[in-house]
Amino acid sequence: xxxxxxxxxxxxxxxxxxxxxxxxxxxxxxxxxxxxxxxxxxxxxxxxxxxxxxxxxxxxxxxxxxxxxxxxxxxxxxxxxxxxxxxxxxxxxxxxxxxxxxxxxxxxxxxxxxxxxxxxxxxxxxxxxxxxxxxxxxxxxxxxxxxxxxxxxxxxxxxxxxxxxxxxxxxxxxxxxxxxxxxxxxxxxxxxxxxxxxxxxxxxxxxxxxxxxxxxxxxxxxxxxxxxxxxxxxxxxxxxxxxxxxxxxxxxxxxxxxxxxxxxxxxxxxxxxxxxxxxxxxxxxxxxxxxxxxxxxxxxxxxxxxxxxxxxxxxxxxxxxxxxxxxxxxxxxxxxxxxxxxxxxxxxxxxxxxxxxxxxxxxxxx
Length: 366
Ligand code: SAH
Ligand code: SF4
Prior knowledge:
Blueprint: E1 3-4, H1 10-19, H2 25-36, H3 50-59, E2 60-61, E3 66-72, E4 78-83, E5 89-97, E6 100-104, E7 108-110, H4 119-122, E8 125-128, H5 131-144, E9 162-165, H6 175-186, E10 198-202, H7 206-215, E11 219-223, H8 229-235, H9 244-254, E12 263-269, H10 277-287, E13 292-298, H11 312-324, E14 328-331, H12 356-365
Parallel strand pairs: 1-2, 6-9, 9-10, 10-11, 11-12, 12-13, 13-14
Antiparallel strand pairs: 3-4, 4-5, 5-6, 7-8
Helix pairs in contact: 1-2, 5-6, 7-9, 10-11
């Protein structure tokens, strides 16, 4: 079977080139053709000798997830539904802003962590995405937005300037593949993004936060959503395994290695659940010793969620309590909700392999 070169980062491409009797610098050329120019046909890689192109064609392929649908929202947001085989689909969202373009990338088909307010979590878990399927999302976005492929202008500014691992799935539960994809995002011969512009968002897998710090410290966002363990246990069940105190300690350990001098805490605003003034005060006390920014996310609904979005007024009051305590606080603007592309609405197509009872087992044994 041919190997898919999209699964390889720079280092493994060097190993591959050595294995097939080629010089290591060929790996750099391959990286640039594939990731900078968006070329998947070996015949078009004009600075590779014909004999090498033929050798590659017999041993390797460059295979991307296929696009099932392409949606564009009124505000310029794009969402792609990508097929990853066996009836499964994942979603990727591009959010253009004045001075940057952010791609929200998925890491798993579904998610086993079952946060109660999350549409992905409600669907159960099927499998981890491969490196090719993760980096393929970035490849496809740049290609579809028309910012690669011009070999004469390799410095063309790519549409995607920032990546957030905030799509479907828990990135740190698919650690190796996510880190290899991050390596490609940061590699100057591939996407060349700065560490500050690549963010991993996690619901709080403490040992994996430590491993990320050692392996690939990019910007870190932590989904907090509650100011105490009793409430967080209900909303984010993995909290029972890694309670808030341990999570905050992992954030403190992460900071010296982080490319930014703060951690982002995400806090989804659920009407009557976690959005009162006393919750805000409790949150202030909780995070006061951790250099952080708070990002309040108005809840995005989906069918049968059982939750309502906090009122604009409640969000404002909550934000003001945090800001008076000198916590830098932003309220996430809802983008692309007319195409169900907002946070927590990404559903894709998940053939659930872990039914509820099995999922609960995953949570308690992880
Ligand atoms: N699994 C990771 C990353 C994917 S979710 C994590 O949980 O951090 C990205 C963000 O969207 C998280 O902060 C998540 O809690 C939030 N989110 C999930 N469902 C949501 C919803 N329905 N409305 C608003 N935000 C939601
Ligand atoms: Fe998984 Fe994140 Fe959704 Fe929780 S919020 S179920 S960790 S994707």
